[in-house]
Amino acid sequence: MGEQAAYRVNKSDEQWREELSPQEYSVLRGAGTERPFTGEYTDTETEGVYSCRACGAELFRSTTKFHSHCGWPSFYAPSADDNVELISDRSMGMVRTEVRCATCGSHLGHVFEGEGYGTPTDQRYCINSVSLRLEPSAQQ
After folding, report:
1. What is the DSSP secondary structure assignment for residue 26, as one 8-state letter?
2. Architecture of the domain defined by 4-136
3. Quick one: which H or E segment has residue 50?
């Protein structure tokens, strides 16, 4: 997954395997995808901050989360543009844009544009729940 020197958090494949569950490792480090409508954050409306499950870096805020009914949590923007890395993905016979954590290079999901959801950015960051950890706001 990317060149290790490019990320602030660098761990060996063995270290990632020790720290992550098999499903987390498959998605975060192997660019896998969890089955649609099975993730813990797909429909949650809890206010808070979504961080990378692998390294803890902030990625998204609940204020940009919306219901896209696609089977995965959807956000219209990251909490800061430099929190995520966008990479051209030509796998599976199509061209998509992969979203990775800019801190550790872990796979999060994909971003799509122009789908008509009426969000401020006209983007849908389609993110695997297993790639995220939600820290609820203090008001909860």
Report:
1. H
2. Beta Complex (2.170)
3. strand 48-52
Question: Collapsing DSSP states into helix, strand and coil, what is residue 127?
Answer: strand
Maximal CA-CA distance, the chain? 45
Selecting among 55, 101, 104, 126, the annotated active-site residue is: 126
The per-residue b/e assignment along 50-84, b for 16 or more CB within 10 angstroms, e otherwise, is bbbbbbebbbbbbebbeebeeebbbbbbbbeeebb
Contacts of 106 (CB under 8 A, 6+ apart): 1, 28, 29, 52, 53, 54, 55, 100, 131
Question: Of how many residues is the chain composed?
Answer: 140
126 part of the active site: yes
How confident is the model over 63-86, as pLDDT tens digits? 999 999 999 999 999 999 899 999
Strands 96-101 and 58-61: unpaired
**DSSP letter, residue 72:** S
Q: How far apart are the C-alpha atoms of 108 and 129, rounded to whole Å?
A: 9
What residue spans define the domains of the chain?
4-136
Distance separating alpha carbons of residues 4 and 26, to the nearest angstrom:
18
Residue numbers of the chain with a pLDDT score lower than 70? 1-5, 139-140
